[in-house]
Amino acid sequence: MKTFYSSALFLMSILFTTTISAQNQNQQFDDIVAQHYNNVDAPGATILISKNGKTIYRKAVGKSSLELDVDMVSENVFMLASITKQFTAVAILMLEEQGKLSLNDPITKFIPDYPTHGKTITVHHLLNHTSGIKSYTGIGNLVEVARNDKTLDELIDYFKDEPMDFDPGEEFRYNNSGYVLLGKIIEVLSGDTYENYIEKHMFDRLGMKSSSYGNNRELVINRVEAYEEEDSGYVNASYLSMTLPHAAGALTSTIDDMLKWQNALTNNTLIKSTSLDKAINGSKLNNGEHIPYGYGLGEMNLKGSKGYTHSGGIFGTSTNGIYLIDENVYVVGLSNCSCNDIGAVTRNLAATAIGKPFPTMKDVITLSEDKMKQWVGAYEFEDGAIRHIFIKDGQLKSMRESETNTIFEIFPLSENRFMFKDSGTEYMFSKTADGKRQAIFTANKESIGKEVNKPMPEARKEITLSNTVLKPYAGKYELAPNFHVEVTIEDNQIFAQATGQGKFEIFAENESTFFAKVTPLKVTFNKNDSNKIESFTLYQGGQETVAKKVE
Questions:
Q1: Stated pTM of the model
Q2: Is the pLDDT of residue 200 over 70?
Q3: How deeply is 174 buried, as exposed, middle or buried, from its count of CB atoms within 10 A (0-12, 13-18, 19+)?
């Protein structure tokens, strides 16, 4: 009896400890969500975290309908946007396993009249965005184009005669046209519509009862309203005919159904592990260069943990899913406003779920200036970046040599560990055996920087411009297919907000050139012959990208 009693106490102790641990982690999850969604009367999100295929956290925040003042619930249905691409890619891999196609097949085998301009474009090129075909979301004014219903063939006709951006396999450029063509190939080989194929062979088979191809006319239980944010506040999202995104972004689902989907990938329910490996482990260009995008999914490394991910952004929607392989942790977030940075939420939640949480300002300690001085200097990193560490106004700061020489404050977590505010980016300083200083810079991955003797360049100097000068810059600019930057003006300040990301201020260097302080980027606005703003050029990471003004 005594032995039984002791065993019972031991088991109760384990159960109590496990319960307390789970409660503590849930509180951590709640805190992360609350940092990003602190307005219960704004558009919101649904979020799910699973471990070993089982839900460990499920949350709904904000409103599913602002007009009707309806709270979000976990069962709400959202557009998946580009998360759709993984369904399309898996459908193609299923057809490959059935012997109905090879990934090296030219697309003209299935679409004989498609003009390839004398180039060989394969199914593989469509899957990993290296086809060179122009993305149809970058042709014309997307907001206007998106209002018109098109058959699949009419949609293909809209872009097929456009000149190619590059030869197949030479570059990676995210491309919605390629996935529309994959949808066409699925229809040709299955003898059915893409919509019916996905619903029959995936949704029905996996019990994803709340998932479907998007439709503006059908009644969908628990479907959210979609919103965008303008200077005046929230507005209903621009109209989108669901015939337009097709196999590149037209599916709708819930967080619970997305867990069923992820479990199907993990358990090889639909495709073999060898096929999944091709989808999740990136791919190569013709020159052998590795790119992190595979087939409908991209590689990721979160604090040393390997996984894969995909996000989505479409009018009034922001979505993101992350799966960490060794830990068997899945995090998915669906938001009904393109103004929300759901990717930051899922990333922070995933790190916390695997016991590697990003530090917050609550973790910052006080450190003497003498302690901070020991790390002042210049560091050259493995990717060639030069970062300068210096003290100003009693605060340790970091500057990366770039187009903007942007300065960031860094905050001490210990004597040799420092964090950037609200970014998950850190420095870990140390000294080598020969007394030289080095720094490990951790963002998405770790990079080691060694001390170098190099003077610090000057930071950018800002000027103040009037609302009259700034006003013509306001509008929506397309930086990439389904990825826009909204530029707004508020009280002599100019702000930029990319699809699914937070709003940040940019500062004037002169009347047409602006730079950010939250990230190293520079923007120059471009005028046409009529002196109207037609685009901006983004300078970031050594790359130049032109974003056309679409609104």
A1: 0.80
A2: yes
A3: middle
